[in-house]
Design goal:
Blueprint lengths: L15 H10 L3 H6 L4 E2 L10 E2 L20 H7 L2 H24 L35 H16 L11 E5 L13 E2 L3 H8 L1 H8 L5 E4 L3 E2 L2 E2 L4 H11 L5 E4 L3 H7 L7 H11 L12 H6 L5 H17 L22 H14 L1 E5 L13 E5 L7 H4 L12 H8 L5 E5 L20 H9 L3 E7 L30 H9 L5 E6 L7 H6 L2 E4 L7 H9 L32 H4 L17 E9 L2 E3 L6 E9 L5 E11 L10 E10 L4 E8 L1 H4 L1 E2 L5 E3 L2 E8 L5 H7 L4 E8 L4 E2 L3
Parallel strand pairs: 3-5, 4-6, 5-8, 10-11, 10-12, 12-13, 13-14, 16-24
Antiparallel strand pairs: 1-2, 6-7, 9-14, 15-17, 17-20, 18-19, 18-23, 21-22, 22-25, 23-24
Amino acid sequence: MKNKNIEVYKNTNKPIDERVEDLLNKMTLEEKISQMIYSSKAIERLSIPEYNWWNEALHGVANTGIATVFPQSIGMGASFDEEMVFKVALVISDEARAKYHESIRKNDRGIFKGLTFWSPNINIFRDPRWGRGQETYGEDPYLTGRLGVAFIKGMQGDDPKYLKTAACAKHYAVHSGPEMLRHHFNAQVSLKDLRETYLPAFRDAVKEGKVEAVMGAYNRVNGEPACASKMLLEDILRKEWKFEGHVVSDCGAIQDIHEHHKFVETAEEASALAVKRGCDLNCGRTYESLKKAVEKGLISEEEINAAVRRLLKTRFKLGMFDPDDEVKYASIPFEKNDCEEHRELALEMAKKTIVLLKNEGNLLPLNKEKIKSIAVIGPNADNVDVLLGNYNGTPSKYVTPLEGIRNAVDEGVKVYYAEGCDLTTTRENDWGFSATHGFSEAISYAERSDVVIMCLGISPKIEGEEGLAYLNADYKGDRPTLDLPGMQERLLKEIHKTGKPIILALFNGSPLTINWAQENIPAIIECWYPGEEGGTALADVIFGNYNPAGRLPITFVKSVDQLPLFTDYSMKGRTYRYMEEEPLYPFGYGLSYSKFEYSDLKLDPQVIDIEGLKDIEVEVKVKNISNMAGEEVVQLYIKDIESTVEIPRYELKGFKRIYLEPQESKTVSFRVTPRQLALINNEGKCILEPGEFKIYVGGQQPDERSKTLTKQEVISTVFTVRGEKDIELEY
């Protein structure tokens, strides 16, 4: 009976919708508007504390002191492992809750201290020049959707009443560079490309992941600012997908509507339009003009109520107005943050992200018993930045590649280190230091070593968001070339002349055009930005303590000349789905120390009727035919053989990462739905056509380049959709 006489919004026994409505009805117009800005003000008379909505958690709790730092998102994409991404998100949300409640106990409600996280980034990495591609799960809509849903579910928890944290799918929509144009750019995209490529991951996040928030992008889409788009926000997000959470603008995006897009003339018009379209929260201060917009008749208080209602509901669902003893997540202790268990998971995930690109003559794994001296060379060998990526937290401990190698070998093994060159310098500086100043030392150590580990690539100082990648300020974090910057390739060539066996370890968040290395260097390892335990993970792979199984979530082209214009948002010629030219390394590619054999591909049924649709059960037998235990990423692709419109060459529609002991076999099963067989026509409709389809299953995509690199093939079979006419399916 203790709640009998208290106000409805304070009564935890009442449904959240009733509590929200009660509180909303007690607020003045000015108070409501104050809650629509990311740094929401306190309303003391109603016991509403101040709240800053801005927080980040792409691969760990960011910007708020010590936290576990996992591999950057592009690396998690390379894992092809939904379960691991879910586990990582669970840990991030644990640390988020621990940090939040500790901050509240210290009366600290500042920025990056809340429970609303503007993650994950599920944009499609359509062009490898985009500096923020590292924040995504890669170029494929299906892979991005599956990993995005796993991340969201891990972040938001499974309590029937309370959210653990509130995840946010960003940047909605059609957003992936160029960074220097993002505040005024109009991304022109066909309805087919929109529905086929740019929206599926957002649809999955909303409909399956039940994501609490969506962030609008900076750019226009077909003329409409994304944060004030009738098509995106009203027609698709709210009406079609039935999204009930809140929408937040990217930071400064509402201001862009009138200042850069010139879509309207004033801040009042921009604010009113965005709110009316469904953008509830402003990262920025433009919504301060909403009071004047109401006075001018541009927007009604009831329209403002709709936005505030959604914002309040999120806070109620997070338990922010309830006693801690009623919110189970409030009991997570501060000591959970940065604990040993979380560090172990960071290491496990880092190992799963590593992709073995080349292993000529089985140079890897190295036999520690035969190695007496190792040279670790390169600007990324002892570089903390390349562990962390962008939008990162700060680990209490970290292991660089150099430290990882040193920790992995016996005391008697000499480990030499030389930077050789820095990341970007190509000219002599004012003090007379040439760009090749460190070459001689590096060569000397290489000559005295049994094996050389070259740690090259780029860093978040070169690629990233506008304003963050200061070594690449001219291009706002995007890259005009995909070559190794500075003198790195020249250094590699000089070390190669020594005749010593070389292992090239790449640290990067986007593809590199390492054509010379592929031709001349015997072993190449893609490490991405691997998190706080990156050095240990690399050493484990090099010395065979871990058998790599990562797969590329993005195509590595041979040259930027193979790419369409950066500003062209058509998918023609882009990604493995539409690219006709041979890449350097294909999407889905990666080697292992083990060999796997595929057989007994079975479909049930082999024929389905378009009038009586049913799922297709797919089974395949996978055997480890080597003497080393390892993981395999089983990939399923589908090709519509008889489509009436231009469609992708084939598309990923299933993947599973499995572990097999030597000579062990497993039967792997997939379920293919009719929706996965449908195409998107030129009107943007989801259509299933009768005809023949081809299904491919293997450890790679069914292209010639993958076959050449792996010396393995996929297996395939044909099935039929039988019927007289097309049918339209729900998107």
